[in-house]
Amino acid sequence: MSDSGQRPNVSELIDSKQLSGKRILIVDDDPDSLEVLRLFLEERGACVFVAAGGREARSFFVDSGVDFPDLLVSDIAMPDEDGFELIKAIRRMEPSAGGGIPAIALSAFVTPESRQRAMESGFQKYFTKPFDSDSLLGGIIELLKD
Length: 146
What we know:
Layout: H1 10-13, E1 23-27, H2 31-42, E2 47-51, H3 54-62, E3 71-74, H4 83-91, E4 103-107, H5 112-121, E5 125-128, H6 133-145
Helix pairs in contact: 3-4
């Protein structure tokens, strides 16, 4: 409990640099969404890479060799290749090439069907936009611990 008698939120309990040294790839076709998420993660110590779509995101696996990201956070609805297609393509890769990367879907779609489809496609977590910072950070930390 904090001095005010209220329970502290997740952000108060987590070291602000909890993501230090973690390489996180965020994928979204909306520049504003990319920027908000990039700043959020960098403030917590992450090394952030951005891609404006699924095809661009794939280059981080093909061109990175063994230095592929530690975590993927991807939008679902994107024009060139959506998040479902992206994660399916990644899951077809060998684990040594990044095929087992922990992945979070971040989407404006709030239906149970969208969540289920994301999980069936290969994402481990699903959060809706606008994201709740405590929930998203908790999900990221949970996946990075595995």
